[in-house]
Amino acid sequence: MKKLEVIKKTFKSGFEAQIIRKPYFKKKFMGIIVDFGGSDDQKLCGGAHFLEHKLFAKKDGDISLKLDELGCESNAFTTYNETMFYASFVDHWSKVLELLFELAGTTYFTEDNVNKEKNIINQELAMYQDDPEWKVNHSLLTRMFPKTNLAQDLTGTHASIDQMDSETLLEIYKNHYYAQNLSLVACGDFSDYQVKKMFTQINKLQAKYFTSQKKPKEVIKKVYPRKEMHQVINDDVSISQVGLGIRMPEFEKFGFSDLDAQILLEMMLASCFSSSSSWFELEQKADILHSPLAYSVTYTRQGNFIIMNGVSNQPENLLADIKKELTNIEITEKEFERQKKLFLAKYLRQLNDIDSVAIEQAELNLDHESMDEVFQFLQTLSFSEFYLFVKSIIRQSDIFTTILEKNKRDKQ
To answer: Could you tell me if 109 and 54 are in contact, meaning their C-beta atoms sit under 8 angstroms apart?
Structure first.
């Protein structure tokens, strides 16, 4: 398998840049990623997301309009672990680069534009809170990780949004948007001359826009309580929503990186609970589950967790069956090899999507990993390593459950 051609450079300030060369691709991608997300400590929860919105506002207007004029598709996102600003385009890479640095490197917070954004984000949060699945996940996370930002939505709370002002935003920005905490990724068909010219321009721009600060990340590992393991919520739903959360220990104690552990757990979930699993077939026959479960594996600086969601007219039976399957994980070596091939194929397909490969590589770089290392890990992974890890970590995890059912008055 051909490796990604990635050229990396770390500047004196600590700012990092990497250029992924993809010959014969017309489309190009550039993005600036910040090692700061919604679950990290900040003055007000939701600050990372609020910043993501407001950094597009500049004194002379919305900077996305300037990117539009260059034929760019620009956007941004905030996750638990990071924030990213990016643009997809064909031409004018040098001008796009300048605008991306201006986007992430300058602020324009006024009382008026912050207050307008409050209304938009409050509406966004209200929309999420109307979703039954959000209510189930919120119930799980508030009990798995109490008194952390994981227990809140990435957008914050209505109270934290209403309290946000320009001074608070500027404080959060200064605490997290500094050279050592940011990096740039570019991906496309760049010539040797363009690569050299790009690094020269990046060096000038990072020095212009970002200060160099030595701030080692301090993550205080908390011990979370094992209480309120099950919760029933009444709401206006036509069919019960079921959620199961697995709060897991640190992955490093098992000898795996966060990403490697995430892949192993995703393989386990696909083997045990996907639409092609024998477990799902039995649940269908028993009229417990009609559509496959949704599931995700997440690692953050505050903790690692799995969340599983489903709908069922027999919610108690569904939760009992999920727990039973997790307690008695039985995966054959043949199924393991099948899942390994599927995951390898997924990453290979990703190489042909400029946006996906660049974002993935940028996120991996924050953890000092690369897509090539992911391929290598999957190719050399043995069945015994996989099976021992998933059995051990589930055994040492705490399981929380939630049922969202009809209001009692609606049942009468």
So the answer is: yes
